């Protein structure tokens, strides 16, 4: 795992252990609430990091804790219940520690000597389990994964597992569907051995019973016969890209200082930023500055109520789809339904269980951001589109540290019109997708990758020395030139040209983009299939 990932997990695991020891020592309901909140926070982190095996263990503990939540008078729990929970807490901690162990040797020989940062490109192990170690689909995927920066390892169903590594993903490919009982047992055994991996089953039937059997055995994603192998590759590439880096932001419209403090405390435990508005009359001004992902709206406040405030917001174009969750002690179902009809998305009754509050907030924000993403991503590649790329680049440039650097590159596939005219647009689309996959596989989650338009892409590499950025993009250029693109008559090869500029020479996002674009034009004038650095005056 990356150093930042390890640190975040360590922080949440430490908080969980501290809260649990507080409860064992004190035995109060308040301590159990704190323990449950810390556990839910850890589960959310494991989910964001796409560690399904660890998430299963955490969710098992979470279910056991919630089953014993009860009311204030039910605490402290009986000794047998405390002992059972203690065993699960220790098992979860041990699993997380084991998952953080080193995972094998890095392929340093593949790193060009001119790239000083070996962490930039991380070869990630992917196991492919197929009958007798052979499967046409698995072999094809292994070849593609190798091109896109992964380290594939072919295995037979009964082969011993590689030692000393936790793979990013495991792909099971079977010639028989549904899976045989022996195969389900093998899947369960590998699931237990690689708790952090995402596990796929290729060739599943489109029916409930066989897919449920696979899920029970430990499969995370069942890919049916009808789905193309490219969809599997897309999902694996998505595993290495952090889809959302910004903290979740919640605006709490609440006039009670005690209630607001409790809500903020819960949100902070889950790494969610929040701001309190005690007076709804200033709500519009605060919204414009804070740009929240969700509003927690108290129903009853001085001057006007939460429903009236919500109706005002719903008349503003930018806030028509912003999630609004009502908070109230109102128990009348008719009143709740009417409040939802007039613009709210959910109704939480006070006193609010902090675990439920955090779960509702996260779920609503994730769906809201997913809806926003659909307007910001390119349909063919899944990358940021032109508008979103420009906005992201501006934000990166505006928030750059005083002595930080940002290198921007404009890429354009060479002679792309000839590819479309000769082989057809579907083949041209696949060439574009292949470059997008290569960029996603070879760059960091913090790097900007966008489809700027047609066959043109934009990259932004923060905290990169110009020589390092050039070497990384140069490596991608060479690898893309060697990447085969299949068509009905065989395979074709394509190249790209690129222009690069760095913010240390150009003071704004617009100027650095123009400089990189001009350098791209110069690369084309020089004969294409090369990178040109912009020269500042």
UniProtKB/TrEMBL annotation:
Domain GGDEF stretches: 404-536
PROSITE patterns: GGDEF (PS50887), RESPONSE_REGULATORY (PS50110)
Residues with the 4-aspartylphosphate modification: 298
GO molecular function, one term: diguanylate cyclase activity
Pfam families: GGDEF (PF00990), Response_reg (PF00072)
GO BP of this protein: cell adhesion involved in single-species biofilm formation; negative regulation of bacterial-type flagellum-dependent cell motility; phosphorelay signal transduction system
EC code(s) of this entry: 2.7.7.65
Annotated Response regulatory domain residues: 249-365
Keywords annotated in UniProt: Phosphoprotein
A GO cellular-component term linked to this record: plasma membrane
Catalysed reaction equations from the record: 2 GTP = 3',3'-c-di-GMP + 2 diphosphate
Stored NCBIfam families: GGDEF
Name of the protein in its database record: diguanylate cyclase
């Amino acid at each position: 795992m990356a150093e930042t990932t390890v640190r975040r997990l360590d922080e949440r695991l430490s908080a969980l252990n501290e809260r649990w020891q507080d409860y064992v020592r004190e035995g109060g309901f308040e301590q159990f609430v704190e323990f449950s909140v810390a556990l839910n926070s850890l589960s959310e982190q494991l989910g964001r990091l796409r560690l399904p095996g660890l998430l299963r263990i955490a969710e098992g503990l979470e279910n056991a804790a919630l089953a014993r939540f009860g009311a204030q008078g039910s605490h402290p729990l009986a000794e047998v219940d405390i002992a059972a929970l203690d065993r699960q807490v220790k098992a979860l901690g041990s699993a997380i520690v084991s998952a953080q162990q080193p995972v094998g040797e890095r392929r340093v020989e593949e790193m060009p000597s001119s790239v000083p940062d070996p962490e930039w490109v991380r070869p990630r192990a992917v196991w492919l389990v197929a009958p007798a170690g052979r499967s046409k689909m698995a072999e094809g995927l292994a070849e593609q994964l190798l091109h896109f920066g992964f380290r594939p390892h072919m295995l037979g169903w009964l082969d011993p597992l590689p030692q000393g590594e936790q793979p990013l993903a495991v792909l099971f490919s079977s010639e028989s569907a549904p899976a045989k009982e022996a195969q389900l047992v093998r899947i369960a055994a590998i699931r237990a051995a690689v708790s952090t991996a995402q596990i796929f089953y290729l060739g599943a039937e489109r029916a409930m019973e066989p897919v449920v059997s696979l899920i029970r055995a430990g499969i995370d994603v069942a890919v049916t016969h009808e789905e193309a192998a490219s969809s599997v590759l897309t999902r694996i590439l998505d595993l290495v890209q952090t889809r959302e880096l910004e903290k979740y932001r919640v605006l709490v419209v609440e006039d009670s200082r005690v209630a607001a403090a409790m809500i903020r405390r819960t949100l902070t435990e889950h790494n969610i930023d929040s701001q309190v508005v005690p007076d709804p009359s200033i709500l519009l001004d605060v919204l414009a500055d804070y740009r929240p992902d969700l509003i927690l709206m108290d129903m009853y406040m001085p001057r006007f109520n939460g429903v009236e405030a919500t109706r005002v917001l719903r008349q503003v174009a930018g806030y028509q789809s912003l999630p609004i969750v009502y908070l109230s002690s109102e128990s009348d179902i008719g009143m709740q339904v009417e409040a939802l009809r007039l613009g709210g998305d959910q109704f939480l009754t006070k006193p609010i269980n902090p675990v439920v509050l955090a779960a509702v907030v996260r779920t609503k924000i994730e769906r809201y951001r997913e809806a926003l993403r659909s307007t910001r991503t390119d349909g063919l590649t899944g990358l940021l589109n032109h508008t979103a790329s420009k906005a992201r680049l501006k934000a990166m440039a505006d928030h750059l540290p005083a002595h930080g650097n940002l290198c921007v590159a404009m890429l354009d596939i060479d002679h792309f019109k000839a590819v479309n005219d000769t082989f057809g647009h579907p083949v041209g689309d696949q060439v574009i997708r292949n470059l997008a996959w290569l960029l996603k596989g070879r760059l960091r989650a913090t790097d900007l990758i966008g489809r700027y338009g047609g066959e043109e892409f934009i990259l932004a590499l923060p905290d990169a020395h110009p020589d390092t950025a050039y070497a990384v993009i140069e490596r991608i250029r060479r690898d893309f030139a060697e990447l085969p693109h299949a068509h009905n008559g065989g395979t074709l090869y394509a190249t790209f040209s690129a222009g690069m500029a760095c913010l240390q020479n150009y003071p704004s996002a617009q100027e650095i983009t123009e400089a990189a674009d001009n350098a791209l034009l110069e690369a084309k004038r020089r004969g294409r299939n090369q990178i040109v650095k912009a020269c500042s005056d």
